[in-house]
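Dig into these lines:

——
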Amino acid sequence: MKKLIKNIFKIFLLLFVAGIIFIAWANYSMKRNTDPYISYLTADLPNTKTALLLGTSKNLDNGQPNAYFLHRIRAAADLFKSGKIQYLIVSGDNSRKDYNEPEDMQQALIRYGIPENRIFLDFAGFRTLDSVVRAKEIFGQKKLIIISQKFHNERAVFLAREHGMEAYGYNAPDVNKYAGFRTNLREYLAKTKAYLDLITGVEPKFGGKKIQIP
């Protein structure tokens, strides 16, 4: 019995170590592969017809404004006004009646001077994978700039390129390390899951009718 318990412990330990190694490799590999395609400077990015703005909640659980949201909106407005893009797809979660990331982003962008007819809403961007693949399959974009924080863009641009898109990332400013600690910690696992999704062939939860961007 003791020998059996010892063997089970060894197997568990080996699986644990293998998991840690895979997480470390997935994060390093994703960062290395996407580094040439993401930037904080609009001048480093090519002109494209469309950008994809990835959603997040407008407010935190305590009701305070979400700095991630505000930084992404400002980055999207700056990119549009720089002339690098002509249209924006705003993609996010709309799973509850009182929660609508795409409409929140649309209204915020309009307040920053972006014309409403240049903004397309994707209500089925429940995950980064969904947002990226739907930009290609539903909105017909094979080349685009993705807007989010750097840690998120690394994953999004990686997924887009693995799905045959010419994708670049425009990095919105991050939040301070203390405020973003949990988010950055969770991102280590999110990058790992992104690799597993590719290996297992995970697809977006929802399809839909094609939407043509002029």
User: Anything to note?
Assistant: The chain has six helices and six strands. The CA atoms of residues 67 and 175 lie 7 Å apart.
